[in-house]
Amino acid sequence: DACRKFDIGIGRFAQGKYNAITDVEGVKVGHVTQVRDDVPAPDESGKTTSVRTGVTAIVPEFGDIFNNHLPSGGFILNGIGEMSGLTQAMEWGWLETPILLTNTMSVGAVHSGIIRHMIDRHPELGRKVDVIIPVVAETSDAFLNDVRVFSNTPEHALEAIRKAVGGEVEQGSVGAGTGLISFDFSGGIGSSSRRLPAEGSGYTVGVLVQSNFGRMRNLTVDGAVVGRELDPLFPYDQRRGISYGSVIVVVATNAPLLSAQLNRLAKRAALGLGRVGSYAATTSGEIIFAFSTANRTTREAKESPDLLSLDFVGDRVVNLLYEAVIEATEEAVLNAMFYSAGMSGRKGRYAPPIPRELVREILAAAKAGRVKAENG
Amino acid sequence: DACRKFDIGIGRFAQGKYNAITDVEGVKVGHVTQVRDDVPAPDESGKTTSVRTGVTAIVPEFGDIFNNHLPSGGFILNGIGEMSGLTQAMEWGWLETPILLTNTMSVGAVHSGIIRHMIDRHPELGRKVDVIIPVVAETSDAFLNDVRVFSNTPEHALEAIRKAVGGEVEQGSVGAGTGLISFDFSGGIGSSSRRLPAEGSGYTVGVLVQSNFGRMRNLTVDGAVVGRELDPLFPYDQRRGISYGSVIVVVATNAPLLSAQLNRLAKRAALGLGRVGSYAATTSGEIIFAFSTANRTTREAKESPDLLSLDFVGDRVVNLLYEAVIEATEEAVLNAMFYSAGMSGRKGRYAPPIPRELVREILAAAKAGRVKAENG
Amino acid sequence: DACRKFDIGIGRFAQGKYNAITDVEGVKVGHVTQVRDDVPAPDESGKTTSVRTGVTAIVPEFGDIFNNHLPSGGFILNGIGEMSGLTQAMEWGWLETPILLTNTMSVGAVHSGIIRHMIDRHPELGRKVDVIIPVVAETSDAFLNDVRVFSNTPEHALEAIRKAVGGEVEQGSVGAGTGLISFDFSGGIGSSSRRLPAEGSGYTVGVLVQSNFGRMRNLTVDGAVVGRELDPLFPYDQRRGISYGSVIVVVATNAPLLSAQLNRLAKRAALGLGRVGSYAATTSGEIIFAFSTANRTTREAKESPDLLSLDFVGDRVVNLLYEAVIEATEEAVLNAMFYSAGMSGRKGRYAPPIPRELVREILAAAKAGRVKAENG
Amino acid sequence: DACRKFDIGIGRFAQGKYNAITDVEGVKVGHVTQVRDDVPAPDESGKTTSVRTGVTAIVPEFGDIFNNHLPSGGFILNGIGEMSGLTQAMEWGWLETPILLTNTMSVGAVHSGIIRHMIDRHPELGRKVDVIIPVVAETSDAFLNDVRVFSNTPEHALEAIRKAVGGEVEQGSVGAGTGLISFDFSGGIGSSSRRLPAEGSGYTVGVLVQSNFGRMRNLTVDGAVVGRELDPLFPYDQRRGISYGSVIVVVATNAPLLSAQLNRLAKRAALGLGRVGSYAATTSGEIIFAFSTANRTTREAKESPDLLSLDFVGDRVVNLLYEAVIEATEEAVLNAMFYSAGMSGRKGRYAPPIPRELVREILAAAKAGRVKAENG
Fold it and tell me: Which residue, among C43, C55, C28, has the nearest Cα to C248 in the 3D structure?
């Protein structure tokens, strides 16, 4: 994976096989990526414009999530953003649809796409079962993408769901991260995972971020605020102005957790955002969603007058999960940048890729210095 | 208005001129109502089905809300529902779009409609200004309406916004309330208003509800749990089963309030729902949005490094606003029923209108009894 | 019990044997009541002053709550008040001490008393186990009581815990309710319970309130705003001014619930406060604590790396519990008044008892009228 | 100051004159420190035990805070702790008493002390004005201190308030931090401040922490996880076991902010805790209180029916405040350790001081390496 290739080890826990959210068994990811120039401008001026956008689907596909709900929760670090379905996840505590990511202006279109997907698969929806509430989250790609073109449609949502697979996760400037910018570098979709040691029963935590936040000067990579050194090396005139962006974090785990525990796990992912350099800017949308693939519960069971029963892990394992989700969130944001090769956009804008070699060298030198000092 | 016609006076404050949310100056309401039978069933069976749905727009139209934000806030009584934009309203504290209501499955379509409305009116959106986050809320009309038909489109959202006017508000089985059911009676859209007395500086509070909740036996009308007496008079087999529905409340006021005060005002609207008979059922979405038409603030001002300044009312007036919003919420829910003449729906279902005369008689007799006892 | 004696039946569920929180098996209540005149004034003026205060303990005594925690939760309707330990109950989800009620200025003294009680009983506290966080809540009795006397001490807390018993609960102007006023009538401690029908598995919900809120004109009994009729009958000059008071609600149940479910149950108790006439005044402290006597879990279990498991009731039973807690809260507030015989206080003040006979007549006459109208 | 002495510069903003919360004009700090051995054990065994505890007072002393309230807010990162008055600060939004810190078991005693302080100074309290709700927060010093001795009394609270002064703040193992441990090193009270640059109007943010959290391996200084290198150098058998502790953060600023903005500022302090190595352990109490010395408002004004008016800074300055509070929180935690010279305690326990020289060398070497890599 991107970070491992560059010898950036975040934290103390082992990564999963793919270092991605797909290391949580049953979780699949699919992207639709749109990179088009020469698109007729929507203002009928005859000029052309550029599209840099897309949709990403996270599909926790265990047979039938509509009828087998997964415990879910969330946390809002700063709420100037949108995640439909979050209210339900935090109150009701169950996930019943795929989770889709897209740009801010396309939340409605993607929402309609999920509805259509669910209606197609579940004839009882709208009949025996009233409704479902989809989970759609967003960040804005308006710096590189012409959002007035309305490029994302309900069909793209269906396509992203259809394309979802396990295993390796495509990252960087792809899917809902196509036109995004992190710490003034290109890249939006990143993922990472951690596997707890034996004392944590070997549970896995996977994270996928749609990252669109951060000022270069604050970029912190386990070991150093490298952004302070990178900041003077890159021109300012191509950076975003006062909008310091947003980030969506999706956390998956196979550890059995209650909804309230997932709310708290989501809160720790926010600490991971802080570690990598977020100060949760006042106009940002930094929102976390978390679900557990354990404790699947049928729709019928919850309406039963009889007792339900759920297992859940105790405080000692929860603490390990907290550390793990911080590490994985931090690394997922870095991966969003490390996987991207740079991205051009509308109005001749260009977001450069993070200078991987330089970062690698800075960190290696810092580490060498530290070890030498400690042994001296 | 409906309730006044039937001598049901809720509370102690005076109603505004229209007894509606439009009594708050500058607030307009528009509906698109869809009542169609003989609609081809979406399952290609050759059968027909019925559509009972719509869209309602609340437009706080002071020139240009996109560039002149209104303080806003909200409260979630029970969160198994959706209100896009609520997170932003509670965190950021500002409203920048119209507020639209529709059915659960149409949130995406209506969301797309608002985006299009804003893009059309504001060429700088997606260019100089990144994005807006629309406010769309929902309840489910799946009991009477065939939601698989996807009747509400982005165009319906645009139409509802276009139709928005001040003055009298059409209520009952109209707009987003067309297919809704309240306390086992027909009717979904209701509105009411209160005007504070001189000690409250004459401020107005207006409420509009999209009501879809309640079991008949719990219906309480200022003076009595009339539902207990109505309940045995109506057959059970035509009522909804375990789904006790949801309700969206939109509160408007011209009193100058801060966002945090509006969050708290929204919480009192929840007490009004409780007074009329809600127990906030475990799977309901009972969500309140509140905004103030005072304290309009320009987009630019908020980004300024200089000081902003806002006026707001002190505790004594806030307490009066609390009482007023409880009264108006209670009466708005009653109006949703009193304005409806009954509604048929899919599969031969029928929601009867509330028996207005009987309710009137029960309340009058109760009142007469009380007065007699007190004077005896 | 007080309400039943006066034929005031709130709601549709049956009361428990004692119509009190003690109907939840294992829950005990104890009071220390202080009514003293001729107390030397603390200002050394040589004058005398009056004390009307006390402490109430709710002791969920199943052997050893310190080592066997009970699931707990809470809700803040309005937060201008104090309940120590609430944060822990809502985050951690467990109760590990008795719950004590007193006046605002005595929270510290009673807090110290609980600490001493726990230290005395548990030699491992402060050694093997670090600390405990007591639950102490308050309302202000400063209208009738001279709070400058500091009448409540740690010893009174210990005494209230020691006196705690099951069975009948003393109510009205006793314990922490001695100097309190509800809807401008005397009385502070009230209790009530509901037993679910067979479809709700016979679970019990018990409520105890420390009531100190409400304006007479808003008093509502079972839907009827009797306060409107009582209000002109009582002089205004002996009522409290702008302080509309506070209320603490403690909810107990033997239904197995998770902490998150108890948070939501607590929220419904707030709807019960609204039904009896609260508008959650801007400076009030209206805070609810809830716990379940099922799902006792040992201190050790929670630290285990192994799985814990809890049973909990599904949505259908939860909805019945919601209705039941609203009914019991409403009736507990009424009991706080109905059990009191009036209370004098400092500076010659006097809070009259609620006119029970008149209320009974008003309600009976109203009911007779309603029934006649319905049958007519 | 401690950190500056060791060349540890956290972040990009300048420190205030004292690098302490007292850089916010009018804010004073006072400590009472108790370090005693040969204390008779409370179990009457005839043995002796050790006391390592105390009280710290933060006094925002502008004439009369009782009658001139300061806007306040807060945030709970993890809630297994106690801060009385927090509920009021977040709901009501005003501070009206000093803020006191102590150990968990002494919250009640210190609470009583503040009450007495307020009663003594304000004869109208309990008469014309009902009550006040003190702010008392805690962490547990039970590892080094014998909490069964009950060393902190109401008088100690009064003494700490009396001793409060501006200027230099005593830090490390003093006051409420006497017996505390941070990242397995001694030290509990730390403070730091930041002054915004001209674009931020020169506002000051000051932080004082009562730090009792962290595992050595997670200690992170300005991005560098130095704890990973320190961890193997110190023995494990003298460290705390499963209790990873708690931390209280008090934030003061002279920037005019609304209560809701202070809630959000408090949330960013939590990100600062994350940056220094907190993962918000499941049983920790990590609670933040924030107040602004601007926008003082009289008690009377708030009850007025007329309009109040408050100034507050816009988004651009708020973002600078966010960065500043993260920096100051991080540095305050470091100062808590850097100022301490180590602390012995009960049962022969000993918490070593952080090895300042080694940390300095590690950071200097790392920095030299980074700079070399960047220039190479």
Answer: C55
